[in-house]
Design brief:
Layout (H helix, E strand, L loop, with lengths): L27 E3 L2 H9 L6 E4 L14 E2 L8 H6 L4 E5 L5 H8 L5 E4 L6 H12 L3 H24 L3 E6 L5 E2 L6 H7 L3 E3 L10 E2 L5 H4 L2 E5 L7 H10 L7 E3 L1 H5 L3 H15 L13
Parallel strand pairs: 1-2, 1-4, 2-3, 4-5, 6-8, 6-10, 10-11
Antiparallel strand pairs: 7-9
Helix pairs in contact: 4-5, 5-10
């Protein structure tokens, strides 16, 4: 597991390779829900001046921050009115044309793009460097390393299983193996199906062979709000090796500080995976 060892700005760049100088008194607009949560965890909550409507953690502190639309439909005028010194975006979550418009007005646009759990170290390092929270970032990196090691230890003690991780219905949609979600699941020995996909979020037909091939079907609670009724309905419609199971989508897909809790959550879930368990019974 990589550790943060230097605050040298030559080694602290965002996902596009852009270097960002430290700023002791920033005004931060964050358009990435998981990063908004991470900023608060790093003691930067009072410096967050704008967020999206999907930036819902931590409660209730985040309610004091001005909402400027969604991740895909940012109200740029409202964003600019909050007078941010920095705007944090994500390659997957925010639209490139919108980010380009923002960059013409606000020069300090920080681009994020974690693809694996390990990439959170780089994220902590980046935020710690730019916003002068390097000691906090180091502590979070160490916590992540411990959680990652524990999750992989669980995966090593279990046989590898193929899982279908569903994020949408009508049509059914899943995730490809080059996504952050798949990398998180793989830490505990769950390999997502299908093995190959031409899209990052492929559609699955009702009669697709993958339903019969996988060892487990996981219904994510986001972006589609799957619940127990969907799991029960799926069990009635499909012949599955095990009952369909709910899984906390935030724990699997949110990076930053949530990845630490997410890895612990996945380890607990996999440890208990021989028995069907409800979402509320998982502790982390």
């Amino acid at each position: 597991m990589a550790q943060m060892t230097s605050s040298d700005p030559r080694h602290v760049t965002d996902a596009l390779g852009v270097q960002h100088r430290p700023h002791p008194a920033p005004r931060i607009a964050c358009l990435v829900p998981s990063v908004t949560e991470t900023l608060f965890a790093m003691g930067l909550g009072t410096q967050v001046v704008a967020r999206t409507g999907f930036c819902i953690h931590p409660e209730p502190q985040v309610r004091e921050v001005t909402k400027v639309g969604g991740t895909k439909d940012v109200n740029i005028a409202k964003l600019v009115a909050t007078e941010p010194t920095h705007v944090i975006v994500n390659i997957d979550e925010n639209e490139k044309p919108t980010v380009e418009k923002i960059a013409r007005t606000i020069p300090n646009v920080i681009v994020t793009h974690p693809l694996t759990p390990e990439d959170n170290v780089r994220l902590f390092q980046l935020l710690g460097h730019v916003f002068c929270r390097e000691e906090v970032a180091q502590g979070l990196s160490q916590e992540l390393a411990l959680a990652l090691r524990a999750a992989r230890d669980v995966g090593a003690r279990r046989s590898i299983e193929r899982v279908l991780y569903l994020i949408w219905r009508d049509p059914w949609m899943t995730v490809s193996r080059d996504t952050y979600v798949s990398a998180m699941l793989e830490t505990v020995g769950w390999k997502t199906a299908p093995a190959q996909a031409t899209k990052r979020y492929p559609e699955i037909g009702d009669d697709d062979q993958v339903w019969r091939d996988v060892d487990r079907v996981l219904l994510s609670t986001e972006p589609y709000s799957f619940d127990e009724s969907h799991a029960e309905a799926l069990d009635r419609r499909k012949t599955l090796k095990r009952p369909a199971q709910l899984i906390d989508g935030e724990m699997v897909s949110w990076y930053g500080v949530r990845a630490i809790a997410g890895l612990r959550y996945l380890a607990s879930l996999r440890e208990s995976s021989d028995n069907y368990i409800t979402q509320s019974s998982i502790k982390y």
